Amino acid sequence: MEKFTPIFWLQRPIHWSLIFGLTSLLVSCGSNDIPIGPTSLNSRYTEEQPVLSGNGRFLAFVSNRNGNQQLLMYDLERQLFISTPGINRAETIAESPSLSYTGRYIAYLTSDQGRPVVALYDRATQQSQIITPTYRGWVRKPNISPDGRYVVFETASRGQWDIEVLDRGPNIELDIPNGATVGSPP
């Protein structure tokens, strides 16, 4: 005579091992590992595209904290967020940030009339301006020099991705560390 073993009895060890496995996974990934709060660097939302200022004090990144994509700036020394009014406008996306040496200037990608443009934010004046309004093609991946004078980016105005260097001019206020000497332009 054949012995009949109920299927339920065979599934029980698998069921308990699955419960113990998931419980240990949840405990190891608990919220104690990541600080949550208004001044916490990490949150339960997506944070990406991090960049550091040249002096290592400031961090800029793209976050989805408030239900929309926004560019945030964080002071690593004081462990708090820096206000950047004017960067995150309604119905626009700010991404691909780049910081100058002390984080005074932020070059980033945003949209203007549905096309990507490179913008520059000056934390001293709290103003943002589009610095590539005349480019016919697409632009991407802006990067600012440590002193804030040059901005490089990729453009597809010739039908392929090329590199552009934009010189903001010798008369801009440079972002240099206190006490540093600046040579005259060549």
From TrEMBL:
<dbReference type="InterPro" id="IPR011042">
    <property type="entry name" value="6-blade_b-propeller_TolB-like"/>
</dbReference>
<dbReference type="Pfam" id="PF07676">
    <property type="entry name" value="PD40"/>
</dbReference>
<dbReference type="InterPro" id="IPR011659">
    <property type="entry name" value="WD40"/>
</dbReference>
<comment type="similarity">
    <text>Belongs to the TolB family.</text>
</comment>
<protein>
    <recommendedName>
        <fullName>WD40-like beta propeller</fullName>
    </recommendedName>
</protein>
